[in-house]
Specification:
By secondary structure, the protein is of the alpha+beta class. The chain has one domain: Orthogonal Bundle (Arc Repressor Mutant, subunit A). Helix content is about 70%, strand content about 10%. The protein is built from 6 helices and 3 strands. A hairpin with a 2-residue loop joins strand 2 and strand 3. Helix 3 packs across helix 6. It is globular. The C terminus is likely disordered.
Amino acid sequence: MSPLSFYKCLADDTRLKILLLLVTHKSLCVCDLIDALSLSQPKISRHLADLRKCNVVEAQRQGKWMYYQLHTGLPEWAQRVLKTTEQANQDYMQEAYNRLEHAMSNNCQETSS
């Protein structure tokens, strides 16, 4: 992966936030990303498709859901860029983290009922 293609993939607010969420949560389904980013399913899916084309994320089916994670072949330098960006920009991501945490806690409560 060239640095140019990697940074082009990051050059969108939604794609960058998806990647930073995956840095901290390792694996998320589309529904988690919809909740975290307050965007529609088609918009999230389109950005995930772009990230898959860039070989930055990969998907794994678990039952009826697709779960996304950082691509296992992502170069170490690219992983470090994402981790450093996530750690240094908590304020940029805070709203998405809060919405995701809220959605996940509600899903757990619904599941345990």
